[in-house]
Amino acid sequence: MMDRAMMDREGTFTGNRGLEKEEPLIFEQGSPGKTAVDLPEPPASKNRLGGLERRAPIGLPGLSEPEVVRHYLRLSQKNYGIDTGFYPLGSCTMKHNPRINEKVARLPGLGDLHPLQPVSTVQGALELIDTCAHWLKVLTGMPAVTMNPAAGAHGELVGLMTIRAALEDRGDARKRVLVPESAHGTNPATAAMCGYAVQSIPADDRGRVDLAILRERLDSDVAAVMVTNPNTCGLFENDVQEIAKATHEAGAFFYCDGANFNALVGRVRPGDLGIDCMHLNLHKTFSTPHGGGGPGSGPVVLSEALAPYAPVPYVVHGPDGATLVEKPDDSDGKPFGRIKGFHGQFGMFVRALSYMMSLGSDGLRDVSGDAVLSANYILARLQDTFRVPFPAPCMHEVLFSDRTLKGTGVTTLDMAKALLDEGFHPMTVYFPLVVNGAMLVEPTETESKESIDSFVDTMKHLAERAAAGDVKFFHDSPYLTPRRRLDETTAARNPILRWHPPSLDHAAE
Amino acid sequence: MRYLPLTHEDRQQMLSVIGAESVEDLFRDVPADALLSDPVALPGTQGEMAVEQAFRAFAAGNVSPSSAPSFLGGGAYRHHIPATVDHLIQRGEFLTAYTPYQPEVAQGTLQYLFEFQTQVALLTGMDVANASMYDGATSCAEAVMMATRTRKRRRVVISGGLHPHYRETSVTYGKYTDLDIHALPADWQDSEDAGAAIDGETACVVVQYPDFFGRVRDYTALADACHAAGALLVVVVTEVVSLGLLKPPGEMGADIVAGEGQSLGNAASFGGPTVGLMAVRGSFLRQMPGRLAGQTVDVDGRRGFVLTLSTREQHIRREKATSNICTNSGLCALAFTIHLTLLGEQGLVRLAELNHANAVELADRLAAVPGVDVLNDTFFNELTVRLPKPAAGVVDAMAERGVLGGIPVSRLYPDNPDLRNLLLVAATELNSSDDMDALVATLTEALS
């Protein structure tokens, strides 16, 4: 009789493991004559392509509908999603994605609207954008919002461009943006895209922006200070009002990265903290799906001083109902331009508004409350197992360092890989850079206590196993995932970024 | 509340483990004057039924292009999306995953991105494509940034056949990085010679294929002129279905193709979210923005996929990155790739032929309407007609009769009186002869 160990060693004939199937590329399947879409024969007509017809086949494979369904279903089964289990990826706010959001985004009259229909035929859509904007303004305590940006980093770019436009309008060109060293990489990359030099601000021993150094570096050449609050260590910047004051005294603007707004929603309005500008990630705080990496949506709330410079388009109300201001010349303000096609990520506004209306002002308060409670609970239960570099309380996420793993031969990465076998998605690892071997855990408010306890118990178990010297076990983890550790070095050194027909000998692109 | 699993008892137990009196205690780092004691002034929790009704009311305030004859294009196209697409993209493992940072449990996402990159490269005739951008307009702007970075030159020539939103987005992106953008006037008369605008400081020329007015132009000579001057040719494609029938930009000598992929798998959704495409010649690979999925092996020697060449990206390079882009359009790219897999070679070609045949019929029908001139000699599924009076009023009049009859060019070029009478009309596989009857009838009526 064959036992489980023997099966693991010898494998199966097909390479499949029961429900988990090996799946070739679409290019390795089907035949060119097949299709999964039956279309009518086109009527005969003289073509008007000006002699620019394609002369060679494209090279796409042909599959029938059942083959296509199986392909993508099998691929889906190799993925871990929030629907699969606990996904505490710090600073990404992997919360439950309600399906009502998906349903309403697909309603005829919303999902199928063309962006350039006459405005008289999209009054409901403009009202919806305006309602979503209203919720965001009230929740942040800010007077204005631009709904255009396509994602968080795009929102950062729009925020900084707005700031730059406002500064240039007052004849005050400035050259530098101050960014804490714990910031997301998008912050300095955005500042550079907006033509600014980036100067880093170190963290103090409390994991916060070093206020003394910030003050020292703030001069008449600084355009903006970009601060994430709560910061990427999961801590509330308790000097935030002093930062705002110092920034304004230097004639600069205070940009807040709202990636971590889930900690504050319904309880703290950033407008009360003295900020001028903040992007919101609708795919984080407001539950629109992360979708394997987008689409996002990054509306930016603005102060009175910045509002006139916001980009086009935006919704205004006139005697004939709502309309869109699509050109800077039609604006009462001084829009700095346009930053994307059409009118923002409308489908994401539908989902985010559906989420906000479902929770309501009371429910949203519970969101931040439960998110912060859950993170602090994890902190309390794991503080004797892993080093907590900064004193409690934390906000919606908790940061651990790898100090207690020192000397075991087991790294943060190994912990992450071992968690995969235990059925958890790992936390964010090696970010932020301000502590060694960072593990940033963000449970969100949509995890049950049982789920959180199970994660905590697993982390404790793995820490014990590391302490017991079971290094090989960790280095070879994961064992049970659809693929085990992948060779990223070779992938980068000899990039293969597309499929090629096997007959052709293609070197690296 | 249905989305929140913690019970009152859970919360009490958790607080006692933490050693806190209340949830409010945990917010003690927030300045007291900024901590709200009551919910903000917005409506309270609602059940799913009430929420759904509210959105049905929003939808009822619009005219749905699915229930009215609709001829709008201009960078967003209404195509039939097979039911399979929407079913599969809503698999929770796709919908609720994030960027594949842990490749061992993200092979699904990584493999479809690899397949997506291959499909985009094949369609455009380029060497490599990335894993998506936000949309066509931002992809175009990033292509411009990439060209100026690669060539170390500041001057950019933008064709008057480029979609105005793409031009405006590129101008905005270039404004703060000191680019010298030379935008040619709206080329509605097909008289442009973009090659004449190239000089020794030019980093790139940006053209659209088919162009904003619907024309199909051969850019081979322009590519040669660019390359002779050390500049790059950026070709923008806003209607990707056209590549089922048309010679790919790569064959004309394009160096970068920036496109909009909405037409495959994605509803117009009032303009967003959609999926930006970017494909380049192999030599520009390391200057490309955005994510790339690459093939490799795992420790057991089995083929697998990872995100690769991330030293170009913001999370590693910070202010020296090729772009600040992080989250892109993953799920829209999935819809694109599933739709294209369903179509396959034969289906895509057939779909493109149907679009073109319907547009030929539309052109012939419109040409027969008294006072209407069809301006295009060539087109794929969209064309420009000149009316005897301003198009905006005509479109509004047709809308009142329940027909979405096209886009007045003046909506995108409000300051140019020459364009006031121009109407942009598109036909896809969804436009029936009945739709065209309705268009012709309402147009005739609106012009009389």
Walk me through the structure.
The complex is a heterodimer of chains A (509) and B (448). With 509 residues, chain A is an alpha/beta fold. Chain A has 2 domains: 100-356, Aspartate Aminotransferase, domain 2, CATH 3.40.640; 367-481, Alpha-Beta Complex (Aspartate Aminotransferase, domain 1). Helix content of chain A is 32%, strand content 10%. Chain A has helices at 4-10, 65-76, 99-105, 123-140, 152-169, 186-193, 211-217, 240-249, 346-382, 412-421, 449-467, 471-475, 488-493, and strands spanning 144-146, 176-180, 197-201, 222-228, 253-258, 277-280, 300-302, 314-318, 321-325, 398-400, 428-429, 439-441. Chain A has a 7-stranded mixed beta sheet with strand order 1-7-6-5-4-2-3, sandwiched between helices. In chain A, a hairpin with a 2-residue loop joins strand 8 (314-318) and strand 9 (321-325). In chain A, helix 3 packs antiparallel against helix 9 and helix 5 crosses helix 6. Chain A starts with a helix and ends in a 16-residue tail after the last helix. Chain B is of the alpha/beta class and 448 residues long. Chain B folds into 2 domains: 83-339, Type I PLP-dependent aspartate aminotransferase-like (Major domain) (Aspartate Aminotransferase, domain 2); 345-447, Alpha-Beta Complex (Aspartate Aminotransferase, domain 1). Chain B is 36% helix and 13% strand. Chain B has helices spanning 8-18, 48-60, 83-89, 92-95, 107-124, 136-151, 164-175, 220-228, 249-252, 314-317, 330-367, 391-400, 433-447; strands spanning 128-129, 155-158, 180-183, 202-208, 232-237, 256-260, 276-280, 293-297, 303-307, 373-374, 382-386, 407-408, 422-426. In chain B, the strands form 3 sheets. Chain B has a 7-stranded mixed beta sheet, sandwiched between helices. In chain B, helix 6 (136-151) packs across helix 7. The radius of gyration of chain B is 25 Å and the shape is globular. The N and C termini of chain B lie far apart (58 Å). The mean pLDDT of chain B is 97.
